[in-house]
C-alpha cells in the first residue's frame, strides 16, 4: 500500500471511456481476434482459475452469437484492483485497499482503525466503479463521492479502481470485470466480518457502463459463495456491446441485489447507431430519461462548435455525451437543495408518455417513483401497499438540454374548438408555439407544443409532455419556470407551405387554428390545484401574424369566414383556373353533418332519400352511401348532364372512332365490333377525359398485342361529369356505371358477344365506376363480365366502406387490382386504396412511393409538351398514375412481368416469399395474363382456396420499360481463419449479373444503407434488375468502402478494407432457378473494384 496515495485527485481526468472506446473499436476488431486465435486449440481451454476467486469458464453462456469471442480474465496482479476508502473527514487522501487486505486477520484490521477511523458500520457504504478505459480518478466519480458524503455525513464511499484491467481490447475488459466482481465480493464479505454487519442491506454499488455489470457479478458471487444478498445496485447506462440479449448470468440482473435500478441514457443499438448502453429493462426499476437515448443537448455538429476545445475533444464529447448523461443525471439528483425531487412516471413506452397518456400518479397502476437515491423507498412503499411483488417498472421523464438537467415535467393539453368558425376553416398542419408569462413579467422560454408538424383537427384534443424553463440571457445558467405563477400564455402558430404537401396549401384563408383551451398540469397530478386552464378571448384564432393571448377567463364565440381549400390534387388545380369549391376535408371534419342533414341532390338543403332515372334505376343516399366514412352523399346528375360517350376503337380504326348510340341499339352492328373477340372498356378518373394520352397508348397496346387481331377497345368518356366537387363526381359514377351495364347488355343482345371476354379497366374513380357497371349488369340482366382491372382505385370516400359502395371481387368473375399510391390520404396525400379488394391485388414496390416519382417537375412539364397544368398534375399524381403506365408497359414489352404472393411487403423485401407456388406464395403474371395465370394455379390444385384474397408484390424500375427480374441473393461471409482475423467491415455492396448474348442485369444495390458484414454471417437481399435469361454466367461484385470520421467501425489504420465473401447463392424468381457463384481461390472482395464470381469457381457442394 502506497502512503498518501490518491485515488480521486483534482487533476485533469482521463478521457471518458465511451469517447475513448471509439478509438479502440478497430483495435478490438483485429487484436481481439488475434488474441482468440493465439491459442491453437481455440476453445479447448474452457476454464481458468484464480485461487479463492474461483474458476472462469468461457463456454456456454459466455460465448454466444452476441459474444462471439470470449476471453479469460487477466490475473489479479495484472488487473491490480484497488479500493479507495473515503469518508467525510478524508476526501482527498483515501485509504487504499488492495488484494493483500484479504490476507490480513480480522482482529488486526479492527485494531488498525478500519471500523473506527475509516468505515462507519452504522452508515451506508457506497461502492462506485467506472467502465471501459477509465480509472477511479475520473472527475465524475469525485463529484459523486463528494455529493454522497454531503448528503449523509455518516456514509462511506469506496471507489473500485480497476483501471489496469479496463484497457483494450474491449472483450478482454469484459472478461476482467468477472474477476473484479469476484474480488469485490470477497472484499465485501471480509468487511462484513470486520465491521460486524448483520447483513448487507446498507451496501449500495453504483457502476457506470461496464461497471454496472461488474457490480452485478459482485452481487452474484456474494450470493453464490456466501449466501449474502446485496442491498442495492444502481446501473448507470449498462454497457450494451456483448451484453444485450445475453444470459442473465452474463449481465446485471434483478437477482443480483435486493433492489436494482437502472438509468438508460444511450440505449440505441451499437450497430449501426453506436449506442453504448442497453435498452432492455434489466432491473426492478428502469429509468428512461428522454426515452433512454439521444439525450437533448448532445451535439451532432461537434465540428462546428465555437469553443477553445480541439476537434478531437469535441468528437469524443459527441460519442460519449448520451452515455455519460446517466451519471450526470444521477449526480444532479444528489445535489442539496433540490426540492422537490424529480418524479418519474411509469408507462408502456416513451411515445405514450410524450403524448401525455401516462400521468397522475394516483391513477397509475404503479404510482410514480422518485429518481435517484429515493427510488428504493418508493419501490418498497409499492410493495407494502400492493401486498405483492411489483413487476419490473419502466419509468420515463424529460430533461433540459444542459445543466441543471432535472426539471419538473408538465402535461400540456390543447383542446381545439368545434365552433362554426373552426369547423368551417378546417384542419391545419403546423406547430403551436407557447410562452408562459407571470403577472410580474417573468417569461418562460418558447415551448414547441409539437416538435414536428402535425395536423390539428377541429374539436380534437392533443397532449404533450414538456419541461418549462425560465427565459434568461444567453449562456446564463437556466432555471425552472414556476408554472403555478402563470398569468397569461402567448400562443402563436408556425406554418410552412410545401409544394409537396397539398394539405399545406392556402389560396385565400390565413393559416390558423382555433383553440378552445390550454390546460397545464404536472404529470404527477390530475386536475387538482396544480392544473391551470387558459382560454383565448373572443374565440381569437392562433395564426402566423402575431401571438394570441390566453387567459383564465370565459371566451366569447364569434363567427369567422370559412376556409375553402380543394380536396384532391386535381381539384386544387381546377380551382386555380375555375371557381372555388368547399373542401371535402371541411365537410368530413364538420361534426354537425349527419345522414339526416345531408341527403341532397347537390344542395345541402333538400332532404331527399332517393332519385330515379328511368331504366337506369333509383339511387338512394341512405346507408351505405352515407356513413362515417362518407359523411356527405349527393345524388347523381341526370343522364343528360353526365353526357357519357363511348368511342369504339378497332384495329382498322384507331384515329377516328365511331361512337355508340345508346338510343339506337341496332347501330352497334355497324361499328366494326368483332363479337368473337375480346372487348375492353377503358375509363378515366376524376378531372380527366377519354382522350388522355395514356388511354390512347393503352388502346394501341391492346389492339397491337391481340394475337387474333379481333379485339375492340371502347372508352367510357365521362369528362363532363368528372369535374369538382369531388363528392358530386363520386355520385355521378354510380349512374355512369348503370349506363355502362346497359351498353354491355346491348352488345350482348345485338351482337351475341361472349360476356366472359369483356374486360373493364378503370383508373382511380374509374375503378369503382367499373365495379358499379359489373354490379348493375348482374342485378338488372343476370350477366357477369369476365374481368375488371382496378387501376389504383380512389381512396377518399371508398376505403373501408361497404362492398356495394366500391369495387369488389363480386363485380366480375375475376377482379385484379393494381395499387400504386396506397398511402393514407389525410396524412400522406395518397390517392389510391391500399385495402385488398380483388381476387388478386398487385402491390408494385409495396403499393406506394414508386421509383422515379421524385424527379423534378420540369421533366413532367416537358413530357406534356410544356403544359404546366398536365405536367403539374403528373408531378403530384406520379404514384397514382404509375398503375396504368405499368399495365401498358407490360403489354408492350416481352419482359416477364411477374409478382409473388406474400404476407406483407416487408416479408417480401426480406426474401421470405421467393419460392414460387410453395407455402402459399403463388407466382402470378402481371397485366393481361394475370387471369390465365390465376386460373392455371386453381386448375392444378396449387391454389386450394380461391375465396382467399391474394396480395402480390413485385419491384419495378423508375422508367419504361418498368419490368424487372427479381433476384434473391444470399451473400455468405467466410468464417475461415483469415476472415475472422480481419474482422467485419461496414460498407455497401452492389452487383451486376451477366448472361449469355451480352445480357446484363445492370448495377443492383445490395442494400440502400451501409451494412456491417461480419465473418461467419449470411446476408440476404432482394434486388431487381434486367432479365439475363436462364443461364447467368458470372456476377461482378463491387464493394464501396468509405472512411467516415463519425463511424469508428470504418477506420482502418493498417489493414486494407475487404470482405471475405465465400459465395453468392442467387435465385431467379422468373426463371425459377438457383445458382451458386464463388470467387477464384477464395479471394476477398476488395474495395472500389469489380470482383468476379463464377459458377465454375465453386467447389462441389458437400452432401
Explain what this protein looks like in three dimensions.
With 1103 residues, the chain is α/β, with parallel strands linked by helices. The chain has 5 domains: 77-341, Alpha/Beta hydrolase fold, catalytic domain (Rossmann fold, 3-Layer(aba) Sandwich), CATH 3.40.50; 409-498 and 509-552, PLAT/LH2 domain (Lipoxygenase-1, Sandwich), CATH 2.60.60; 621-815, Rossmann fold (3-Layer(aba) Sandwich); 819-963, Rossmann fold (3-Layer(aba) Sandwich), CATH 3.40.50.1820; 965-1045 and 1054-1097, Lipoxygenase-1 (Sandwich), CATH 2.60.60. It is 25% helix and 21% strand. It contains 25 helices and 47 strands. The strands form 8 sheets. It has an 11-stranded mixed beta sheet with strand order 2-1-4-3-5-6-7-8-11-9-10, sandwiched between helices. Strands 27-29-28-30-31-32-33-36-34-35 form a 10-stranded mixed beta sheet, sandwiched between helices. Strands 12, 13, 14, 15, 16, 17, 19, 20 and 22 form a 9-stranded antiparallel beta sheet that branches. Helix 8 (270-273) links the parallel strand 7 and strand 8 (285-289). The longest helix has 26 residues, at 170-195. It is globular. The relative contact order is 0.05.
Descriptors:
about 1100 residues; alpha/beta; Rossmann fold; Lipoxygenase-1; 10-stranded mixed β-sheet; triacylglycerol lipase activity; Lipase domain-containing protein; TAG_lipase; Lipase_N; secreted
Amino acid at each position: 500500500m502506497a502512503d498518501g496515495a490518491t485515488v480521486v485527485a483534482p487533476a485533469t481526468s482521463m478521457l471518458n471511456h465511451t469517447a475513448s472506446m471509439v478509438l479502440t473499436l478497430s483495435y478490438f476488431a483485429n487484436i481481439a481476434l488475434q488474441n482468440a486465435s493465439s491459442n491453437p486449440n481455440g476453445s479447448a481451454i474452457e476454464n481458468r482459475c484464480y485461487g479463492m476467486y474461483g474458476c472462469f469458464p468461457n463456454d456456454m453462456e459466455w460465448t454466444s452469437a452476441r459474444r462471439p469471442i470470449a476471453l479469460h480474465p487477466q490475473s489479479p496482479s495484472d488487473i491490480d484492483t484497488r479500493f479507495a476508502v473515503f469518508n467525510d473527514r478524508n476526501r482527498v487522501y483515501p485509504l487504499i485497499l488492495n488484494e493483500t487486505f484479504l490476507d490480513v486477520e480480522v482482529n488486526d484490521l479492527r485494531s488498525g482503525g478500519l471500523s473506527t477511523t475509516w468505515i462507519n458500520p452504522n452508515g451506508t457504504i457506497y461502492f462506485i466503479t467506472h467502465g471501459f478505459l477509465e480509472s477511479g480518478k475520473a472527475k465524475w466519480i469525485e463529484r459523486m463521492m463528494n455529493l454522497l458524503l454531503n448528503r449523509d455525513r455518516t456514509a462511506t464511499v469506496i471507489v473500485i479502481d480497476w483501471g489496469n484491467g479496463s484497457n483494450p481490447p474491449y472483450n478482454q475488459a469484459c472478461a476482467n470485470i468477472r474477476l473484479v466482481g469476484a474480488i469485490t465480493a470477497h472484499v465485501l464479505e471480509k468487511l462484513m466480518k470486520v465491521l460486524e454487519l448483520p447483513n448487507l442491506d446498507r451496501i449500495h454499488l453504483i457502476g457506470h457502463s461496464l461497471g454496472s455489470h461488474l457490480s452485478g457479478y459482485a452481487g452474484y458471487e456474494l450470493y453464490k459463495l456466501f449466501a449474502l444478498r446485496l442491498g442495492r445496485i444502481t446501473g448507470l447506462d449498462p454497457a450494451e456491446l456483448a451484453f444485450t440479449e445475453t444470459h442473465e448470468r452474463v449481465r446485471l440482473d434483478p437477482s443480483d441485489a435486493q433492489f436494482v435500478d437502472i438509468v438508460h441514457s444511450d440505449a440505441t443499438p451499437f450497430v449501426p447507431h453506436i449506442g453504448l448502453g442497453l435498452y432492455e429493462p434489466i432491473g426492478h426499476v428502469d429509468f428512461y430519461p428522454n426515452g433512454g437515448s439521444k439525450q437533448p443537448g448532445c451535439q451532432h455538429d461537434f465540428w462546428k462548435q465555437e469553443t477553445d476545445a480541439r476537434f478531437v475533444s469535441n468528437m469524443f464529447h459527441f460519442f460519449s455525451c448520451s452515455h455519460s448523461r446517466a451519471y450526470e443525471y444521477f449526480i444532479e439528483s444528489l445535489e442539496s437543495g433540490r426540492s422537490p425531487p424529480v418524479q418519474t412516471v411509469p408507462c408502456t413506452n416513451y411515445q405514450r408518455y410524450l403524448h401525455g397518456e401516462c400521468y397522475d400518479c394516483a391513477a397509475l397502476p404503479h404510482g410514480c417513483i422518485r429518481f435517484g437515491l429515493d427510488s428504493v423507498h418508493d419501490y418498497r412503499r409499492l410493495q407494502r401497499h400492493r401486498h405483492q411483488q411489483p413487476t419490473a417498472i419502466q419509468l420515463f421523464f424529460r430533461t433540459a438540454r444542459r445543466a441543471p438537467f432535472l426539471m419538473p415535467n408538465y402535461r400540456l393539453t390543447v383542446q381545439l374548438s368545434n365552433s362554426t368558425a373552426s369547423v368551417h376553416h378546417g384542419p391545419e398542419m403546423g406547430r403551436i408555439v407557447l410562452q408562459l408569462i407571470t403577472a410580474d413579467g417573468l417569461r418562460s422560454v418558447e415551448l414547441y407544443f409539437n416538435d414536428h408538424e402535425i395536423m390539428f383537427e377541429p374539436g380534437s384534443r392533443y397532449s404533450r409532455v414538456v419541461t418549462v424553463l425560465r427565459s434568461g440571457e444567453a449562456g446564463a445558467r437556466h432555471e425552472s419556470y414556476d408554472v403555478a405563477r402563470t398569468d397569461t400564455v402567448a400562443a402563436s402558430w408556425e406554418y410552412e407551405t410545401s409544394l409537396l404537401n397539398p394539405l399545406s396549401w392556402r389560396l385565400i384563408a390565413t393559416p390558423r387554428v382555433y383553440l378552445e383551451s390550454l390546460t397545464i398540469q404536472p404529470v404527477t397530478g390530475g386536475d387538482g390545484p396544480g392544473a391551470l386552464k387558459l382560454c383565448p378571448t373572443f374565440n381569437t384564432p392562433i395564426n402566423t401574424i402575431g401571438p394570441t393571448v390566453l387567459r383564465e377567463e370565459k371566451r366569447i364565440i364569434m363567427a369567422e369566414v370559412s376556409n375553402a381549400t380543394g380536396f384532391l390534387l386535381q381539384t386544387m388545380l381546377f380551382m386555380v383556373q375555375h371557381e372555388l369549391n368547399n373542401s371535402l376535408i371541411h365537410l368530413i371534419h364538420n361534426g354537425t353533418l349527419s345522414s339526416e342533414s345531408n341527403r341532397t341532390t347537390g344542395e345541402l338543403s333538400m332532404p331527399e332519400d332517393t332519385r330515379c332515372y328511368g331504366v337506369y334505376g333509383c339511387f338512394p343516399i341512405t346507408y351505405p352511401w352515407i356513413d362515417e366514412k362518407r359523411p356527405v352523399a349527393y345524388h347523381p346528375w341526370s343522364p343528360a348532364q353526365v353526357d357519357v360517350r363511348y368511342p369504339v376503337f378497332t384495329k382498322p380504326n384507331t384515329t377516328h372512332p365511331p361512337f355508340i348510340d345508346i338510343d339506337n341499339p341496332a347501330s352497334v352492328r355497324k361499328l366494326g365490333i368483332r363479337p368473337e373477340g375480346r372487348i375492353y372498356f377503358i375509363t378515366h378518373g376524376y378531372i380527366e377525359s377519354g382522350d388522355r394520352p395514356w388511354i390512347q397508348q393503352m388502346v394501341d397496346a391492346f389492339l397491337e398485342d391481340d394475337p387474333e387481331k379481333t379485339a375492340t377497345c371502347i372508352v367510357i368518356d365521362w369528362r363532363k361529369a368528372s369535374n369538382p366537387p369531388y363528392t358530386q363526381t363520386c355520385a355521378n359514377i354510380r349512374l355512369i356505371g348503370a349506363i355502362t351495364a346497359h351498353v354491355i347488355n346491348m352488345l350482348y343482345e345485338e351482337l351475341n358477344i361472349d360476356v366472359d371476354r369483356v374486360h373493364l379497366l378503370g383508373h382511380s374513380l374509374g375503378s369503382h365506376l367499373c365495379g358499379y357497371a359489373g354490379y348493375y349488369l348482374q342485378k338488372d340482366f343476370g350477366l357477369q363480365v369476365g374481368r375488371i382491372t382496378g387501376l389504383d382505385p380512389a381512396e377518399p370516400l371508398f376505403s373501408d366502406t361497404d362492398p356495394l359502395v366500391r369495387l369488389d371481387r363480386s363485380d366480375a368473375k375475376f377482379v385484379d387490382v393494381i395499387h400504386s399510391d396506397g398511402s393514407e390520404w389525410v396524412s400522406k396525400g395518397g390517392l389510391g386504396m391500399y385495402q385488398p379488394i380483388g381476387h388478386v391485388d398487385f402491390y408494385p414496390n409495396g403499393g406506394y412511393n414508386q421509383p422515379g416519382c421524385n424527379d423534378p417537375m420540369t421533366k413532367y412539364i416537358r413530357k406534356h409538351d410544356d403544359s404546366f397544368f398536365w405536367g403539374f398534375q403528373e408531378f403530384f399524381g406520379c404514384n397514382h398514375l404509375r398503375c396504368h403506365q405499368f399495365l401498358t408497359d407490360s403489354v408492350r414489352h416481352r419482359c416477364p412481368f411477374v409478382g409473388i404472393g406474400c404476407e406483407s411487403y416487408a416479408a417480401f423485401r426480406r426474401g421470405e416469399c421467393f419460392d414460387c407456388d410453395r407455402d402459399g406464395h403463388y407466382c402470378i403474371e402481371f397485366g393481361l395474363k394475370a387471369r390465365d395465370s390465376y386460373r392455371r394455379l386453381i386448375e392444378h390444385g396449387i391454389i386450394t382456396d380461391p375465396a382467399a384474397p391474394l396480395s402480390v408484390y413485385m419491384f419495378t424500375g423508375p422508367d419504361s420499360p418498368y419490368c424487372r427480374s427479381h433476384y434473391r441473393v444470399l451473400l455468405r461471409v467466410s468464417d475461415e481463419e483469415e476472415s475472422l482475423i480481419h474482422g467485419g467491415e461496414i460498407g455497401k455492396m452492389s452487383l451486376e449479373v451477366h448472361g449469355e448474348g451480352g445480357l446484363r442485369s445492370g448495377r443492383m444495390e445490395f442494400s440502400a444503407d451501409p451494412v456491417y458484414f461480419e465473418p461467419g454471417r449470411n446476408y440476404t437481399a432482394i434486388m431487381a434488375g434486367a432479365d439475363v435469361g436462364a443461364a447467368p454466367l458470372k456476377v461482378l461484385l463491387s464493394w464501396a468502402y468509405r472512411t467516415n470520421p463519425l463511424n469508428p467501425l470504418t477506420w482502418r489504420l493498417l489493414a486494407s478494407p475487404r470482405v471475405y465473401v465465400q459465395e453468392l447463392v442467387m435465385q431467379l424468381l422468373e426463371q425459377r432457378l438457383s445458382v451458386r457463384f464463388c470467387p477464384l481461390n477464395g479471394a476477398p472482395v476488395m474495395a472500389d473494384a469489380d470482383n468476379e464470381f463464377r459458377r465454375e469457381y465453386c467447389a462441389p457442394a458437400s452432401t
